[in-house]
Specification:
heterotrimer; A mainly alpha (539); B alpha/beta (248); C mainly alpha (412); A: 539 residues; mainly alpha; ABC transporter involved in vitamin B12 uptake, BtuC; 2 domains; five-stranded antiparallel sheet; two-stranded antiparallel sheet; 23 helices; 69% helix; 6% strand; C: 412 residues
Chain lengths: 539, 248, 412
């Protein structure tokens, strides 16, 4: 059998090198082989599979896969084999080679080709070797990974051939790892196995770890020793990567907190105004994104990839204008009465929530992710999703932008002046009411663009803002009022602490711990991490 | 004068806010029964000194002793007030939604605990004392008026009345004449002199006419430490004092 | 001493309030139980329960008013104390179910059987006895408030900061009580109660009794609050509210005063919660929601903070409006409530009772001063005043806005 197999592989190897036209195969030469599957019992089926694999043509892969999954049927009337999919009472038929739909068939008209676990194993390894030589590196890689999972010693030779022929370094590494896994499951000599343990140890991830743990349990002597030490090494590195992943999750949560809190830091810190409707500004930003995407969907679908960039300025303007309206209409009458401001803005938040509920309905609205926001990539042992990554980048950009506005523009200068000494600023000719309104608008506008970002990771519903308001206050209070750097550090610290607590305490308890921690922290440092000091504070 | 015989004893007191030295090695001694005027330009550390004595601000270094033996740096505002140091603020602060009478009743020397006040019933002695004070600060006919409705000068006086009601050993009075007319200033000076007969008083003031009217020993503060000490004439003759005040 | 303490609570306004309450406590149950159903004076049972609920809300509002109106502590977490009192009562009612539950376990409540718990958690011990549960209704909120307040007031967390951490407190409890392994029924809370003190909880007589108990609790707490606010302690509280640091410099230990009213107020909220639960028949973690706490504050603001009658009136009025709106115009209710917040803070800072009594005082003073103007004689001796100062006296600014302008509570 191994001999046969290697012959097959050799053949398929040559086939792989030969013209692609040959590799594509001729549907008409393959079809009789496939139709053979309809006949005979398990033993025959195994031989038939072997014959299919012997063609070395990847085109037989879908049929084999379907066979393994129990989706391969033959038509009783003419013995034609089809891949089927259940559709109501009948089956949808698909040609196993061309993959075209071939109409439907009643339940009684078709019969399933039986398959057992032994056959499945054969198919798996056959598929592995079949695809190890495919033209597409992705397919080769997937095949190698399949072999790794199967740990089939029979594939070692196939892998050796494939490794020798492989041109892509990354794929070759995967193949070598697959080979190592297979070697450890074989009865090859010790030296080979030690080398394999070495390979797995370098691989260093969870699947290598679980494999090695198996090896340790089933081996003796040098291999056992080597596996044990490799396990220790891998466990250490996995722990380190886990921490890194946790930090990443923490930073991601922190940047969400930062986005939600930074607008609040301006209105609360700079102006001393408690804006309980801040969360609703975030919510309005998210709904602006929704509306923008709806418009794009109906009138200019091509722009969907840019929808967020269109939504950003609009969300800033919408929330900002509403903010200015709130300041002019309500808050300016309440300066110096922070508790009343708190109550009035809470009332406004109720009104805004209900208004959005009346306009858009109480249920979640679907906001889509553009392609560049979806998906993920691997960094070492970490998985990094694009949407989280862009939100971290975006949060930091917003922070930097806001810092620039406050430090480098005349508006920022006026704002800081009003913050420090309102009366003096007024005497210097600064129109303090305008600065108040604009600062409030700025804070609200930033909440709006935070809403655009949050629409990508959270449910867009009228209650969106409520979920963030308490957390945002915690961030601002923890970081220290009137200090944007404090908000940054506060948000990131709370995010990371939260994520580190989660594995031990669970998400809810972790959050409770964080809340209790902040309550205690405020006792110790009533003005937060980065407190303003001196006489100015006392006044 | 040594610490043991002093009423108030500050030695080498320093306070810094974010690097700015509000008090810099300040040393000052007030004898029992003495009345002392403190003058100095803006930012000289007068109010910060009051804050340190009354426990509002903790000194970074230095000693503050009351009655020769009690270390004030470890006490909070309430216990320092209970020890017998009363303070009048620069800006008159009275309880605006209480009547003049209630303001005085609250200030009156009596047990300060929540349960003591919960079951407190005003005694005849206390009523007499409040009436005396009302006469002294000339607010007798305003006794049931809300403090919010008093004029600026009346509030200053009410606050002095509250200070007296506490019956402290030492009164710290911050700019009592601020915002007063000349006549009022003169009367306030008389009132303070009256009070000084049986209390120790430290007065912080800008108004030189007022300080002259008091006719007591003067301490000049500058940049958080003592620049000169002595009679008003003596310190006005001091070159450095003139320089500091006139900016020469 | 005690008699003078209680005697202080009485005056004309308190008398009117007590008379109305007495009438309500007697008439509502009577019209429910003794007036035949076809009579127009019959009060249906659902209305008794509804009004009973209002009374417990009024008690909660009273508790909030005591700390906010008189001491300036804006609590956004009183729902936590209310809910804790409610849970203590709920635990008693759960244990009264006994074998009548779905699973018929004599000791374990249904939800514990459902979660496969074998033993009763230790903190459920004793709740089969009413006196113990009643004690816990007071102690649990009181102790939590004491510990929380002891930390917060000692380190001088004030103003907005305090409000925010009270909100964080109730939020943390909300999350905690949602967890199944806390042992309080998780999401569903405690419900399906059967009887209280041996009486069927659904019976009309029990409902009427609970209504009367709520009314009596309200009256009792009203009298306690009133004696407190009219004592010297009450004056100190107002002093703390208006000028906290001045009060310290007079030698009052502000944190002790705050702790006293704070704890007392939490206990009152606990009583309110305990009376609320048997009337509505359920307690779940939703009661901890921060939004509930803020709503209580608006009841007080509407009625008039710093006036005890106002708190009661506000709670009843707003909740009556809520019942009506949510039945007739459910979509409008949040607009109305939100608008109420804005309107009251902008235009009615003293609330209904405060504004009315201000107007009354102003009217009376005008009459007095006109009488005085007609009389002869020298004006009484005035202390020296500057002309500017004199011009200040009749300034017609309402006291609150002036107090706000003079002593802005810094947003620290």
């Amino acid at each position: 059998m191994p001999l046969l197999r290697s012959l097959i592989l050799l053949f398929s190897f040559i086939a792989g090198l030969a013209s692609p036209a040959f590799a594509q195969g001729d549907a008409e030469t393959l079809r009789p082989l496939i139709n053979e599957l309809a006949k005979g019992k398990y033993a025959e089926t195994e031989q038939q599979i072997g014959a299919l694999v012997a063609t070395g043509d990847p085109a037989v892969a879908p049929a084999l896969r379907a066979l393994s999954a129990g989706d391969l049927f033959f038509r009783k009337s003419d013995g034609q084999v089809f891949i089927t999919e259940k559709a109501g009472k009948s089956y949808k038929l698909t040609d196993p080679l061309t993959l075209e739909t071939q109409g439907e068939a009643g339940r009684r008209d078709v019969k399933k080709i039986k398959v057992n676990n032994k056959l499945r194993r054969v198919i798996r390894s056959a598929l592995g070797s079949l695809t190890l030589m495919a033209a597409d590196p992705k397919v080769r890689r997937a095949a190698a990974e399949a072999v790794f999972k199967a740990q089939d010693p029979d594939s070692i030779e196939a892998l050796d051939t494939a490794i020798a022929a492989e041109t892509d370094d990354a794929v070759r590494t995967v193949m070598e790892q697959a080979r190592a896994a297979a070697v450890l499951n074989s009865d090859l000599e010790e030296a080979q196995k030690l080398a394999a343990v070495e390979t797995l140890s370098e691989m260093g991830n969870r699947s290598a770890l679980s494999l090695l743990i198996n090896v340790r349990a089933n081996s003796e002597g040098a291999v056992h020793e080597a596996a044990s030490s490799a396990i220790t090494t891998i466990e250490k590195s996995i722990a380190a990567w886990d921490s890194a992943q946790n930090i990443w999750y923490g930073l991601s949560l922190g940047s969400v907190l930062l986005l939600a809190a930074i607008g609040l830091a301006i209105t609360f810190g700079v102006m001393g105004v408690i804006n309980m409707a801040h969360g609703e500004m975030v919510m309005i930003g998210a709904y602006t994104t929704f509306v923008v995407q709806e418009l794009i969907r109906t009138s200019a679908p091509g722009l969907f990839e840019y929808s967020l960039f269109i939504a950003l300025p609009l969300a800033f303007l919408t929330s900002g204008l509403i903010g200015v309206g709130i300041e002019r209409g309500v808050i300016r009458w309440l300066y110096g009465r922070p508790l009343e401001t708190l109550l009035a803005t809470w009332g406004i938040s109720l009104i805004l929530q209900q208004a959005v509920r009346s306009l858009f309905g109480p249920t979640n609205r679907e906001v889509g992710n553009p392609d560049w926001m979806s998906g993920a990539f691997e960094l070492g042992q970490m998985t990094i999703t694009y949407n989280r990554m862009w939100i971290i980048v975006f949060a930091l950009l917003v922070f930097a932008g806001l810092m620039l506005v406050l430090k480098k523009t005349p508006f920022g200068l006026y704002t800081r002046a009003v913050t420090q000494n309102r009366r003096m600023a007024a005497s210097m000719g600064i129109r303090t009411p305008w600065i108040d309104a604009l600062t409030f608008g700025l804070g609200s506008g930033i909440a709006g663009i935070a809403g655009v970002a949050l629409s990508q990771i959270d449910n867009v519903s009228p209650n969106l803002g409520q979920g963030y308001i308490i957390d945002s206050f915690m961030v601002v209070v923890f970081g220290g009022v009137g200090n944007l750097w404090g908000t940054l550090v506060g948000a990131m610290t709370l995010g990371v602490v939260n994520k580190f607590l989660e594995p031990y305490a669970g998400a809810v308890l972790g959050k409770i711990f964080v809340l209790v921690f902040i309550i205690l922290f405020i006792q110790k440092r009533p003005r937060g991490l980065f407190a303003l000091k001196g006489r100015a504070v006392e006044a | 004068m040594t610490r043991a015989t002093s009423l108030l004893y500050l030695d080498g007191v320093s306070v810094a806010f974010d690097g700015f030295k509000a008090l810099n090695e300040l040393s000052l001694t007030v004898a029992p029964g003495e009345m002392r005027a403190i003058i100095g330009p803006n930012g000289a550390g007068k109010t910060t000194m009051m804050d340190v004595i009354t426990g509002k601000t903790r000194p970074d270094s230095g000693e503050v002793f009351f009655n020769g033996a009690i270390d004030l740096t470890g006490e909070d505002e309430a216990s320092i007030a209970e020890l017998g140091i009363g303070r009048k603020f620069q800006k008159p602060t009275v309880f605006e939604s209480h009547t003049v009478w209630d303001n005085l009743e609250l200030a009156l020397k009596a047990p300060r605990g929540p349960f003591a006040t919960l079951f407190h019933v005003i005694t005849g002695g206390e009523k007499t004392r409040i009436n005396q004070l009302l006469d002294l600060i000339r607010l007798g006919d305003k006794r049931s008026e809300l403090a919010a409705n008093l004029s600026h000068g009346q509030k200053q006086w009410l606050e002095i009345g509250m200070l007296l009601a506490q019956d402290p050993k030492l009164l710290l009075v911050d700019e009592p004449a601020a915002g007063m007319t000349d006549a009022e200033t003169a009367e306030t000076a008389e009132l303070l002199k009256d009070i000084a007969k049986d209390h120790s008083v430290v007065v912080v003031e800008h108004d030189m006419v007022f300080v002259r009217a008091l006719g007591v020993k003067v301490t000049v503060l500058h940049e958080g430490s003592v620049l000169a000490e002595g009679s008003l004439d003596h310190v006005s003759a001091n070159e450095r004092v003139v320089e500091v005040y006139l900016g020469r | 001493m005690m008699s003078s303490f209680l005697f202080r609570a009485m005056d004309a306004r308190a008398g009117v309030f007590l008379a109305i309450m007495a009438a309500v406590i007697i008439l509502v149950p009577a019209c429910n139980l003794f007036v035949p159903e076809e009579s127009p004076f019959h009060v249906p049972t659902y209305a008794v329960t509804l009004m009973g609920k209002y009374l417990t809300y009024a008690l909660l509002a009273l508790a909030v008013d005591l700390v906010w109106g008189y001491c300036g502590i804006l609590s956004l977490g009183h729902a936590a104390f209310f809910a804790l009192g409610g849970y203590a009562m709920g635990m008693y009612l759960m244990r009264q179910i006994g074998t009548r539950g779905v699973y018929g376990d004599p000791i374990l409540p249904d939800f514990m059987v459902f979660l496969n718990w074998q033993d009763l958690p230790w903190y459920w011990y004793g709740f089969d006895m009413f006196w113990f549960a009643a004690l816990m209704v007071l102690l649990v909120p009181g102790l939590l408030a004491f510990i929380f307040g002891w930390f917060a007031f000692r380190s001088r967390v004030t103003g907005v900061y305090l409000s925010i951490i009270t909100q964080a407190l109730t939020y943390a409890l909300l999350l905690a009580f949602f967890r199944n392994d806390m042992g309080f029924g998780g999401n569903n809370g405690l419900t399906d109660f059967k009887d209280i003190l041996g009486f069927d909880i659904q019976a009309d007589t029990t409902r009427a009794g609970l209504f009367a108990a709520s009314g009596l609790a309200l009256v009792l707490c009203f009298l306690i609050c009133r004696s407190i606010t009219r004592s010297k302690l009450g004056k100190v509280l107002v002093a703390v509210r208006d000028a906290e640091s001045r009060t310290r410099f007079l030698g009052y230990r502000v944190e002790h005063y705050k702790l006293f009213v704070w704890t007392l107020s939490a206990m009152m909220a606990g009583i309110a919660g305990a009376l609320y639960v048997p009337q509505v028949g359920i307690i779940n973690p939703g009661e901890f929601a921060p939004a509930n706490s803020i709503e209580v504050v608006i009841w007080v603001a509407v009625g008039g903070r710093g006036t005890l009658v106002g708190a009661v009136l506000g709670a009843v009025l707003v909740n009556f409006a809520k019942t009506w709106f949510t039945a007739a115009l459910p979509d409008i209710w949040l607009f109305a409530l939100g608008g109420l917040f804005v309107f009251v803070t902008l235009f009615l800072p003293k609330g209904i009772v405060g504004t009315v009594s201000d107007g009354w005082t102003a009217l009376r003073q005008r009459r007095i001063s006109s009488d005085f103007g007609e009389g002869s004689g020298d004006p009484p001796a005035q202390p020296p005043q500057s002309p500017a100062a004199q011009a200040n006296v009749p300034e017609p600014v309402p006291a609150t806005s002036r107090a706000g302008a003079v002593h802005p509570q810094p947003a620290e």
